[in-house]
Design brief:
Blueprint: H1 3-9, H2 20-38, H3 48-54, E1 55-58, E2 61-64, E3 67-69, E4 71-74, E5 79-80, H4 82-93, E6 97-101, E7 107-108, E8 111-112, E9 121-123, H5 126-135, E10 142-145, E11 155-162, E12 165-172, E13 179-184, E14 193-196, E15 203-205, E16 212-217, E17 222-227, E18 241-242, E19 246-247, E20 258-260, E21 264-267, E22 271-275, E23 277-282, E24 285-291, H6 293-300, E25 308-317, E26 325-329, E27 336-339, E28 342-343, E29 361-362, E30 364-371, E31 378-387, E32 392-394, E33 397-398, E34 415-419, E35 422-425, E36 431-434, E37 455-464, E38 471-476, E39 482-487, E40 490-495, E41 501-503, E42 511-520, H7 524-527, H8 544-547, E43 565-570
Parallel strand pairs: 4-6, 5-7, 6-9
Antiparallel strand pairs: 1-2, 2-3, 7-8, 10-13, 11-12, 12-17, 13-16, 14-15, 14-17, 16-19, 18-19, 20-43, 21-37, 22-34, 23-24, 23-25, 25-31, 26-30, 26-34, 27-28, 27-31, 29-30, 32-33, 35-36, 37-42, 38-41, 38-43, 39-40, 39-42
Helix pairs in contact: 1-2, 2-5
Length: 571
Amino acid sequence: QPLASVWSEYSPLHKETEYAPEKVYDIPFAELSKRLLEEKLDFHYGNETLMAEHGSVEGKALKVGDYAYGCVIIPPALNLKSSTLKLLSDYAAAGGTLIAVGGVPSLVDGEVQRVDLPGILFARTVAEAAEMAGKAFTGRIEITDELTGANARTIYVHERRVGDSARYLLVNTDEHREMRALVKMPGSASGPLAAFDLGSGELYSLPAAGGRFNVTLAPAGSLLVIAGSEAAEAKDALPAALLSGAAFDNLDNRVPDVLIDNLDCTPMEENVLLLNDLTLELGGKEVYSGPVCGAWHTHFYPAPDGTPFRATYRFHSSQAVPGCFAAIEVAENLDSITLNGVPVHALKARGEAGAFNPSKSWKDHCFTKVPLPALAEGMNTLVIEGKKVNNITGPGWHIRVADWKNHTPTEAEEVYICGPFSVRPLSDGSFGIAPYKKPFGKNLTVEGYPFYGGRTLYKSEFNLPKIPGRVLVQLNGVNLASVRVRVNGKDCRTLRWAPFIVDITHAVESGSNTVELEASTTLVNAFGPNRTAGIKDARGIGPVHFVRMEWIKRGYELFDFGMESLGIYID
């Protein structure tokens, strides 16, 4: 690790340039780590302090504690500790493989000193260093991308020994592209192999002629291969696909025996219209109008507890809709709630606690139901009033509540209108209520259910005149959190990510069959962040994504949810 080199260059003044001098060492070090993973090389970082205390040379190996290493790489670095230089000199003199990227450091313990290491190999780039290290270890696992014929770089391998068995965790780190791979196990993994499904906990026998087998790893899919005595315990035959994201039957080049692309789709819960624009008054004075998130830490939360507030939400409905309710956070603690001037009431008493009760709350205990009998055609106005009481001090920050048993917090939050309706986009970028219409289910987000967060039932009939062998179903175009597959009322499997392949042989019958797919979306479109520019490309989501107003846009960035079709394949 080039830690000493980084500290040799470090200055707090470099913050203005995002620590550019320090990154001279950080960037190639990170790239070297990535390249070694791509080459399927297991490695440890060499901490100079630990090496000084626990390092030694035995034969051609550098030992640190209980571990021995047959190759050492010096990344681009400015400084080495004298103890590290002595250890590397002894290691190189013993014939160990030592590779330096670019050149050797010019400082030892912070002073200019010539660094002379016998037999050292020089690599011009980190990629070349990783390739040189790979040539020193020819007996490792090999994984080939079948489409390119080259090393499957996006598949990383984690190898560990457990007793007399070896475990190899294969992970496709590409989140967008599946990897059709040919895996060649190392010679040390001779004997039977097994595949452990990390999604179900099942152990299956893995056929591998000559230690080779084919597998398709879905985006972010994984496969745990076991060699040794543990593998001999596997009794069950390998299924078409594992829940961990590995498939052994490639159906892409086959024409389905039955294709169903007109599934009946029925939402199993209320539809949702999100209201996240408000006008906020504090102490009788209007202080803000716009996206809800802009009021939180600028106006509402900084206000002293006990400050009277009034929040107004407006939404359009193309018709009067009975049977609706509003889900309002801690609505029971408000002083007044009106819809179009008509008082409406929360289904919980002020300060009411207890477990989640779906008859009183929606999705979460804090989102209290408020029936809306007065929802009318045209523009509707929902007004909540109360006294500000809250212990939030910043994004993700709270202060301790001393008398928590009598704490009755209030919020000026998003409101969810729920009921039997569809949702349509309006010209100003917002959404309104439209007459109820069943979705096709291919993309709920554009079919009148942009903020829907719940379960949906897909259903269809299909006919099988005869069942000569195994029957598989593959779901196509899936954008869902989970799908529970049932055939003729029998549970087959619950899928949460690709590959969406299920063996339904045990459930099908000759003649007419019924397939039901109970699918679930997530709550991201309803709960957000949903108006943050570029949120679909974000690598992670935190409190800051909800409150940075310079990222907030007028329209919405919503994720797609649905399923295109399913194919049935008969072997």
